[in-house]
TrEMBL record:
<protein>
    <submittedName>
        <fullName>BlaI/MecI/CopY family transcriptional regulator</fullName>
    </submittedName>
</protein>
<comment type="similarity">
    <text>Belongs to the BlaI transcriptional regulatory family.</text>
</comment>
<dbReference type="InterPro" id="IPR005650">
    <property type="entry name" value="BlaI_family"/>
</dbReference>
<dbReference type="InterPro" id="IPR036388">
    <property type="entry name" value="WH-like_DNA-bd_sf"/>
</dbReference>
<keyword id="KW-0804">Transcription</keyword>
<keyword id="KW-0805">Transcription regulation</keyword>
<dbReference type="Pfam" id="PF03965">
    <property type="entry name" value="Penicillinase_R"/>
</dbReference>
<dbReference type="InterPro" id="IPR036390">
    <property type="entry name" value="WH_DNA-bd_sf"/>
</dbReference>
<keyword id="KW-0238">DNA-binding</keyword>
Amino acid sequence: MRKKHDTSLLTEVELEFMTVVWDMGGGTVRDILAELNKMQERAYTSVATVLKIMEQKGFLTSERKDRSLVYRPAVPKAEYQKTSLKNLSSKLFNGAPAALVARLVDDEDVTDEMLEEMRALLDERLGDNER
């Protein structure tokens, strides 16, 4: 049975799990647990529960292979990034992407090199590569 996609955002823990699944391309609970345990020790049952919830929310799909479920991303990473940024821009910056970028540019941790990369991306998007 196909699950209805939940348009909500992932929780912090779910995002950590989803990042592992995106990086791996998919895997069994044991595969995903092994990757997650490189960062922080987790119980098998906890990982299985979170993965099942993420499947119910529509972020993952699963298929039975031998005696295990193999989980795969149902939402591409780029699509989730786009949705998350739109949500952030809408809720925190009153729907003004320029305000989000301004806050990012004002961040002291953003280096000149990072700013140059941003400029290059903007120039490319605007079709102004003659700088």
